[in-house]
Amino acid sequence: MKATQGIRLMLVDDEPHILQFLELGLMNEGFEVRTASDGLDAIGMVADFKPHVVILDVMMPGMDGFEVCRYLRAEETEISIIMLTAKDEVDDRVTGLSIGADDYMVKPFSFEELLARIQARLRNQFPGLLGEVRCGPFRIDGRRKEICHKDQVLELSPTEYELLQYLVINHGLVLSKPMILDKIWGYDFGGEENIVEVYIRSLREKLGDKEHRIIRTLRGVGYRVDLI
């Protein structure tokens, strides 16, 4: 069984040859794929199919990709959107990302690049779907809710698991305390921000990270995981 088994992708494009090419390629990779040739069809299909990732063309007759993206963001928060367009305009990219798209690709593009973008979105937003994710010395098993560091299973509480997974998946990026609180504890968390420091301290102890070389603190900014 492929790691992509059970992952649902929706393709929305008014060009039949592109739909057919991508559908065959992605099905061959093990994804479950549905296609729509216009925005209205896509919206009607989303509630039933519940895709994890939508690959969405911008330039379509009637309801364009921007309108579909706005709708999806308002109705389906647990979804990843990759927008496609023949336009290489900065304004279009800015518009797409500002209304909720997670990534943006300009036509023509290679199938390999699209596949890599899809995998990146899944690792970031749905890490448990891929089963096992490797990031340097870390191995994250989303199905078993288990993280190994240098082949050693870490004894983590559920919250520690979620926090370390978030940090590792976003390795190299600086994550602020507000970002961490919102992602791990929820936007309506009423406690103190120093709870993040408490959990970071605990993770460092379990990683043997006395010198803070794995989970780095950038004072006044946030935390960053380095894969060493």
From TrEMBL:
Gene Ontology biological process: regulation of DNA-templated transcription
One GO molecular-function entry: transcription cis-regulatory region binding
GO cellular component: cytosol; protein-DNA complex
SMART domains: REC, Trans_reg_C
Keywords noted in UniProt: DNA-binding, Phosphoprotein, Transcription, Transcription regulation, Two-component regulatory system
Cross-referenced SUPFAM superfamilies: C-terminal effector domain of the bipartite response regulators, CheY-like
Residues found modified as 4-aspartylphosphate: D57
Ranges of residues in domain OmpR/PhoB-type: 130-227
Name under which the protein is recorded: DNA-binding response regulator
